Amino acid sequence: MIRSAGQLRAVVCLVVLAVVFWATPSQGVVELAGVPPGGFLDVSSDHWAYDEIMACLAAGIVAGYGDGLYHPEYPVTRDQMAVYISRALAGGDENVPEFTDTPTFPDIGAEHWAFDYVEYAVSQNVVAGYDDGSYHPEYAVTRDQMAVYVARSICDPTGEDGLAGYTPADPRDFPDVASDFWSYTHIEYCVENGVVAGYLDGLYHPEIVVTRDQMAVYVQRAFELPIPAGPPAPDFTLQTLDGTQQYRLSDLRGMPVAVLFWTYWCPYCGPQASDLETLYQRYRDQDFLVLGVGLDDPVALQEKVEALGLTFPVGYNPYAAVLYGVEYIPHTFIIDRSGSISSSLVGLQPIGTLEAAIMEVL
Q1: How sure is the predictor about 12, in pLDDT bands with cuts at 50, 70 and 90?
Q2: Domain holding 295: CATH number?
Q3: Where in the sequence is the domain holding 162, given as residue range(s)?
């Protein structure tokens, strides 16, 4: 539904918002579809692998594409799999070491985006090449291969040595995975450790290509990644209206943060911003921060900030509203120290309600 800004200003109740890129409030706006916040626009909370994808996101194992989507249906390729496994093994992307020696594979040189990850996986005895000596990063990973990646990664020591003495305690004996199947041991090891199970038809289907949602399930279970208590707060960058400071939400991990989506003309946004300013002053010595995300004319926003006497950071980023599925303003999200959304408060809330939500994350 399209509404003019004049019509929106006349709304007496909660103001319907939806902005992709607003330059001035005289432009038309589009009502959002109402995607629930949770990191990716195409992974709603009722997705079958939602918890596992969110766990991998919180652990820094996965990230979205440039369009803000996760694309759970995309097949996983061997270069991508090396990235996921290496991040999980190393305890985060920042712990994957830079590789400076001669490349192991002729088709994965130093210029390849996954070079360091493939080499780290090699150093951990998780991956090997094909008979032609190549790694073939473009090949899709199937369920038998996925079991190999995972089993080699979670046994001790990593690699085939860690599986040398393994005998399945209670073999599933999938009809399509005989004991002489090339990855029989790896599949049984994954089943025994609760990483994977068969399909309803009783088969394992080793030939099926693994998609990104399925991969997240394998990795979350294999490495026992904790399921976040709330959905991870989508990351965004906010530059203050005066241009002097820039905040990236992911850099604020360890701090409780209130994110207020608002406009200068909304009749309820000003009072909500003022109450948050009061709470910001009350709890800022406990590392509490408020970020005001403005969704309309930055000049008018700055005038409103000055009129209200706001001291917490305020910037302009309408795209962040899309990431958070904002439909109405004001809309305040309370984010805990782990970077998860603790509360989602739509409309003008009493200061006591705001304070109670903030107290839960301090």
Answers
A1: very low
A2: 3.40.30.10
A3: 50-222
